[in-house]
Task: inverse folding
């Protein structure tokens, strides 16, 4: 791995952070996931989006895993410690998989503490694992992972010591980009290794392969007319809507949170289509759609309605000539692969492809002389997650 | 100059809870992110009603076995009468042998309630401090030496040898709220423990400890400053206050309670004044922000080991609150104090 992308420097940071991953921790987390009968993912905010994308692919894979989210209707109790005996009986070893940059996210912390108490009480370390990926090994979640499962330190959520200017933004990312996208890239490498039933030592190779592909996607998308048009539109005083279903919806959410911070700084709003609080669009508003198949009926219907009301539709699609691509005013195609029932890399590529949007918007606003709030400039991550 | 990391401790009150309940709290405390489990060392509790008093050293072994990484130790063991200092040295050496690097000992001059019931008479201040100094010397000689002969005013060792030595250096602290004992701490030990009552003359205590350390050729920055932080938290203020009132006998002026050994008598001596004092010296609160602010003030004063002594009506709920809403941010705050993000002028 190493220096790959010149135009968006934070991609280099992600690559370097992945290069620094501890081999032993990587192998341990792989062994835990591989030997577990059920995976319970736990994360908050945008990090949850990245984890959900991975878990969704993991569940769909040919050599997949049973994934049960704490919020699923079928989750057999209110809390993980109450659900653990049932899950163990049904599926065997339980892996609580946590992705948290700060290591302090509240919901994962509650899950981890409850499962840790159960392990401490039963002294059954074998059937329960708490696997934590975090930037801070000294955080509460880091410590619990170290003691009750595996702790993997992935850099990317550090506080900036220096005064950051907008230009430097491009090298540091925005709101935890470096950690979340790095985590997603690692998890894709893990999923591919699992699907091919390869040894843990192969994870790095698959990460490297995914890395070169996503880097190419980012390089291409930032230079594309599509990106220029989208950023030009975002600069205008219109509301932006993001849409998608399933894993695409997670990508849309991840983008919406970051874009929302910047748009709100200039007085506009960003919404995710289909949420309870999402208003109707008005003429001139932008709908950014993410879809792998480009054929999801509901999303296509949203596009039609949006256009009827005078909105502009831009899409990132994984299928050429699809309905959604045809309905869009502007569209960007990302070629995607899935090897022998393995994880589909469209969502990984789409997450990376959409990550420069807020950065380029910030850059553009800075050119116009607008200074963003200090908290966005100073932190690489969301202050609330 | 040594840079210290913040160590947060859970105070397991032997006087209030039975050993099995306390063990559950201690296990939970480790999971919630505490670095230290510290426990009191009493023969009699402060209150007769609802009082408990398990043997601390036996409980410590159980906690060390059931936890994995936390430091465990006492605050405060009195090596003056019922415990001969050589036996204290032996007990803690054995603990460290079993759980190396995780054991610490805090010594102090103690209370009559723990010694008088066993037939000892309670001496004056001068003798207590003299005994404490000698006891520390005896303990350290046995931990570090071979056959030891010691001729003190109060203790004697006649070619005594501790055959089971500690595997690591056991950290030794002294509880004090006065300068004379702080001087002993600076000369012989790894730091002091004080409580909010010691804050009135904290500057003098610290100066005295540091001066003594320099005189003994030691680096004062290596010495720890430990604080016992007393708090009772509940959603209902009155319930939190009622729970903290269990500790009202501790608020009886020292000169009045100095020689009282019977918890029933101590309990009967509690008046409105003591309850008022509990309100002042304990943090009775319904808001976790208050706890954060109060702890933050201690960190600003330079305390690097803070033991949270809770009398909250629902201790498990309080431990959860600490683990999720207080401890992570205390560590962040500690980092910020050492390397401020913003300049002071802002």
Result:
């Amino acid at each position: 791995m190493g220096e790959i992308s010149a135009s968006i420097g934070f991609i280099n940071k992600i690559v370097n952070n992945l290069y620094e991953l501890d081999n032993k921790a990587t192998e341990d987390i792989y062994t835990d996931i591989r030997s577990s009968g059920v995976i319970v993912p736990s994360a908050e905010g945008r990090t949850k989006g990245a984890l959900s994308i991975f878990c969704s692919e993991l569940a769909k894979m040919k050599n997949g895993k049973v994934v049960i989210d704490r919020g699923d209707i079928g989750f057999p109790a209110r809390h993980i410690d109450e659900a653990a005996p049932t899950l163990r009986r049904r599926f065997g070893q339980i892996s609580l998989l946590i992705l948290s940059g700060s290591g302090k996210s509240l919901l994962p912390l509650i899950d981890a503490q409850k499962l840790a108490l159960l392990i401490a009480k039963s002294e059954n370390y074998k059937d329960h694992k708490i696997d934590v990926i975090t930037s801070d090994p000294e955080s509460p979640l880091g410590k619990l992972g170290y003691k009750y499962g595996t702790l993997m330190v992935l850099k990317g959520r550090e506080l900036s010591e220096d005064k950051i200017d907008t230009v430097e933004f491009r090298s540091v990312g925005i709101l935890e980009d470096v950690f979340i996208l790095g985590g997603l890239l690692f998890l894709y490498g893990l999923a591919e290794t699992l699907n091919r039933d390869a040894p843990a030592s192969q994870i790095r190779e698959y990460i490297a392969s995914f890395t070169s592909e996503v880097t190419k996607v980012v390089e291409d998308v930032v230079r594309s007319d599509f990106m220029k048009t989208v950023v030009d539109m975002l600069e205008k005083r219109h509301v932006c809507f993001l849409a998608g279903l399933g894993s695409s919806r997670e990508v849309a959410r991840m983008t919406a949170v970051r874009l929302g911070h910047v748009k709100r700084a200039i007085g506009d709003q960003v919404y995710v289509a289909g949420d309870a609080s999402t208003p109707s669009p008005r003429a001139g508003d932008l709908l950014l759609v993410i879809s792998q198949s480009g054929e999801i009926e509901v999303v296509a219907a949203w596009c039609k309605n949006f256009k009827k009301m005078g909105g502009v539709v831009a899409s990132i699609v994984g299928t050429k000539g699809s309905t959604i691509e045809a309905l869009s005013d502007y569209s960007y195609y990302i070629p995607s692969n899935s090897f022998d029932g393995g994880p589909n890399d469209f969502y990984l590529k789409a997450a990376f492809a959409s990550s420069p949007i807020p950065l380029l918007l910030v850059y553009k606003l800075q050119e116009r002389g607008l200074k963003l709030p200090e908290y966005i400039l100073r932190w690489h991550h969301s202050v609330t997650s | 100059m040594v840079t210290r990391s913040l160590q947060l401790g859970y105070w397991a009150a032997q006087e209030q809870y039975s050993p099995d309940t306390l063990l559950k709290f201690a296990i939970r405390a480790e999971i919630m992110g505490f670095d230290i489990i510290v426990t009191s060392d009493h023969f009699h509790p402060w209150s007769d009603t609802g009082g408990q008093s398990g043997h601390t050293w036996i409980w410590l072994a159980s906690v060390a076995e059931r936890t994995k990484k936390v430091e465990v130790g006492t605050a405060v063991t009195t090596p003056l009468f019922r415990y001969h200092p050589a036996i204290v040295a032996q007990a803690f050496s054995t603990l460290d042998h079993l759980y190396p690097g995780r054991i610490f000992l805090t010594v102090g001059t103690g209370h009559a309630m723990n010694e008088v019931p066993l037939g000892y008479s309670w001496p004056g201040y001068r003798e207590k401090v003299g005994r404490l100094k000698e006891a520390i010397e005896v303990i350290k000689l046995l931990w570090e030496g071979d056959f030891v002969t010691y001729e003190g005013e109060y203790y004697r060792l006649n070619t005594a040898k501790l055959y089971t030595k500690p595997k690591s250096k056991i950290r030794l602290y002294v509880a004090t709220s006065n300068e004379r004992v702080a001087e002993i701490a600076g000369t012989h030990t790894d730091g002091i423990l004080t409580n909010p009552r010691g804050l009135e003359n904290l500057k003098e205590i610290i100066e005295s400890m540091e001066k003594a350390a320099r005189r003994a050729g030691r680096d004062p920055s290596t010495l720890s400053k430990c604080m016992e932080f007393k708090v009772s938290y509940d959603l209902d203020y009155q319930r939190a206050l009622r729970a903290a009132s269990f500790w009202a006998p501790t608020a009886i002026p020292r000169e009045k309670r100095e020689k009282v050994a019977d918890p029933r008598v101590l309990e009967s001596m509690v008046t409105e004044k003591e309850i008022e004092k509990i309100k002042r010296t304990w943090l009775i609160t319904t808001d976790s922000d208050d706890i954060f602010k109060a702890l933050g003030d201690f960190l600003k004063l330079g305390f690097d080991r803070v033991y949270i002594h809770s009398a909250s009506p629902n201790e498990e709920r309080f431990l959860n609150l600490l683990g999720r809403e207080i401890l992570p941010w205390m560590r962040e705050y500690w980092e910020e104090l050492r390397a401020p993000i913003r300049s002071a002028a802002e």
